[in-house]
Design a protein that fits this description.
The protein is of the alpha+beta class. The chain is built from 8 helices and 7 strands; from the N terminus they run H-H-H-H-H-H-E-H-E-E-E-E-E-E-H. The termini are far apart.
């Protein structure tokens, strides 16, 4: 019964609707309570299943073209000179509106991707086996990924830093395999995701500092790879780990 109040907050926590203090309290509870962690993992998996099912029947461009063709005027209109300015204004409006919709769709796509990464991070926090290779040695973790993902990467030297490498696992984004590396700073865990750029889809290149659910995200690209650092730690910690990873590239 004591966990009912925490379970009641899980959906809001996973959707990023809690205040930072409440989100942090739920995150700490999930680290200590196996039952609530399992329930959180179950809900994350259900969210991802629903998201995938919702994308299954998105109409393709050919369908859109057929619809537009069916509603197009069937007879030629004789445009007079008086219509030319109005037509030009309408065309300008369509161009501006199309650019705005394109930007809006890109932002939605980027936020959806960040939300998916946050779900993966939560699933890792809630899992009883968060990593497949357990080691604090970068020379053990990096070779483990060989043959499991279609690229390689470098890991930083963490001696004399507040960070500890916990291990890693293979993660998937848009059905493309990549690396999820787990780091610990004090009592917090951070996920570092590395994927090929094409797996990130329409993610805006300028989105280097964003948030997803209750987590802060840092992102950048380097030589065809897209990096994401996800965690609920102070911004300074995210920046420092990001700088260490960039220096090792």
């Amino acid at each position: 019964m004591g966990c009912q109040s925490w379970i009641a907050k899980l959906d809001a926590y996973l959707d990023g609707e809690l205040q930072p203090a409440d989100a942090h309290a739920v995150s700490e509870h999930l680290r200590e309570c196996a039952a609530c962690a399992a329930e959180s993992l179950s809900r994350v998996q259900m969210k991802r299943a629903v998201q995938i099912a919702g994308q299954k029947y998105i109409p393709d461009e050919a369908f859109r073209a057929r619809v537009q063709s069916s509603i197009a005027p069937r007879r030629r209109l004789a445009w007079g000179r008086l219509w030319i300015p109005a037509f030009a204004s309408l065309a300008l409006l369509l161009i501006v509106g199309g650019s705005y919709l394109s930007l809006l769709n890109q932002r939605r796509s980027s936020q959806q991707l960040l939300s998916e990464l946050a779900d993966l991070h939560v699933a890792t926090l809630a899992s009883s086996n968060p990593v497949d290779v357990v080691s604090t040695d970068r020379h053990t973790v990096k070779p483990w990924f060989e043959g499991k993902i279609p690229f390689t990467f470098n890991l930083p030297e963490l001696q004399n830093t507040p960070f500890t490498l916990v291990g890693g696992r293979v993660a998937y984004l848009s059905q493309s395999p990549g690396a999820e590396l787990i780091f610990r700073v004090r009592q917090h865990q951070l996920s570092v995701f590395i994927f090929q750029e094409r797996a990130a889809g329409d993610f805006a290149a300028g989105n280097s500092d964003q948030s997803a659910q209750s987590f802060t995200v840092r992102s950048w690209s380097h030589k065809g790879l897209r990096y994401f650092v996800v965690g609920d730690v102070a911004a300074a910690d995210l920046d420092k780990l990001s700088d260490l990873l960039k220096a090792a590239q």
